[in-house]
Write a structure and sequence with these properties.
Strands 2-1-3-4-5-6 form a 6-stranded parallel sheet, with helices on both faces. It is α/β, with parallel strands linked by helices. Helix content is 46%, strand content 12%. Helix 1 crosses helix 11, helix 3 packs across helix 8 and helix 4 packs antiparallel against helix 7.
C-alpha cells in the first residue's frame, strides 16, 4: 500500500503554502492531502479551537489511513498540533511524522512576546500587511512567493490560536511517539529555542537544520524540504510501516482531540 501524506499548515497561512510539496508528491505518485485548519484559508469564517483543529487533522489522517500508512507533516503551529496529535495516549494511525519549524514550547514569556508582537502588527495601518509582504518578498523565491499567501492570511484567528497553544503538553506527547520522527528547522528559525530539549526527549528523532534559512523553511527552500519528504517516504516504504506504536485498528476507535 502506498504511503499517504497529510500536510498541516502554520498559523495565519493555509493549505496553499504546500503547493510546491503537493506538486512534488504528485509527480512522485504519492497521494497527498493538505488541510485548512479552522479560521484559515477556505475556512476563514470559522472560529479556531483546538478541538476543531485536532478534528480536522484526525479526519484527514483516518481517511488517508484507509488507503495506506500515513506520513503526517506539520509546519510551525501545524507542527505543534501534529506532535500533540501523534503523541496521544491512544495512538492515531500515523506511521511517521515530520515536525518543521516547531521545536519550541508555546508558553510563558516567549508566547506572551509573540502575542504582543502580533498585536503590534495588528495596530499598524493595513494590520501590518505591507510590512509582512515586504519581508516575504525579500526572503521567499518567486516559485513559492504567491503560494504562501494565496489562501489569505488568518489575521483574526491569530491571537486565539496562539493563546490556545499554551495548553499543549508537547514533552509528554514526544515521549509517547514511537514512529519515525524528523525535526526540520531553518538555521535562523526563532523557534529553535527548545531544539536540544526536544531531541533529548525524543532521542530516536532525526534533526535536520537547513542552512541560510529562516522559519519559513518549506517555502524558502522548497527543494530541500521536498528532499526531506523523500527521505521520510523512502524510510517508511523500506520498513513497511503500516501502523503506529499501537495497532491501526485499535487506534481507529478514538477520534478528535488527543486523549
Amino acid at each position: 500500500m502506498a504511503v499517504q501524506v497529510v500536510l498541516v499548515h502554520g498559523i495565519r497561512t493555509s493549505a496553499t503554502m504546500w503547493r510546491s510539496q503537493v506538486a512534488h508528491l504528485d509527480a512522485r505518485g504519492t497521494p497527498v492531502t493538505a488541510v485548512d485548519l479552522p479560521g484559515h484559508g477556505s475556512r476563514m469564517g470559522e472560529v479556531f479551537t483546538l478541538d476543531s483543529a485536532f478534528t480536522t487533522i484526525d479526519t484527514a489522517v483516518r481517511a488517508a489511513a484507509e488507503r495506506g500508512p500515513v506520513l503526517l507533516v506539520g509546519h510551525s503551529m501545524g507542527g505543534l498540533l501534529c506532535i500533540e496529535y501523534a503523541g496521544a495516549e491512544e495512538p492515531p494511525p500515523v506511521s511517521g511524522l515530520i515536525a518543521a519549524s516547531c521545536t519550541a514550547i508555546p508558553r510563558g514569556i516567549g508566547l506572551q512576546a509573540y502575542r504582543l508582537l502580533a498585536r503590534g502588527f495588528d495596530s499598524l495601518p493595513d494590520r501590518g500587511m505591507w510590512l509582512t509582504d515586504r519581508m516575504l518578498d525579500r526572503i521567499l523565491p518567486d516559485e513559492t512567493r504567491a503560494d504562501f499567501g494565496a489562501g489569505g492570511y488568518a489575521l483574526d484567528a491569530q491571537d486565539v490560536a496562539l493563546r490556545s497553544l499554551s495548553v499543549l503538553d508537547l514533552l509528554a506527547a514526544l515521549r509517547r511517539i514511537g514512529v519515525p520522527l524528523w525535526f526540520v528547522n531553518g538555521q535562523y528559525d526563532q523557534l529553535r529555542v527548545n531544539e536540544r530539549l526536544f531531541t533529548r526527549i525524543a532521542p530516536h528523532a532525526e534533526l535536520i537544520v537547513v542552512p541560510r534559512t529562516t522559519h519559513h523553511v518549506t517555502v524558502m527552500r522548497p527543494r530541500v524540504f521536498n528532499a526531506v519528504l523523500d527521505v521520510a517516504l523512502t524510510t517508511l516504504e523500506a520498513t513497511g510501516r503500516a501502523g503506529t506504536g499501537g495497532s491501526a485498528v485499535a487506534a481507529a476507535s478514538s477520534g478528535g482531540r488527543p486523549t
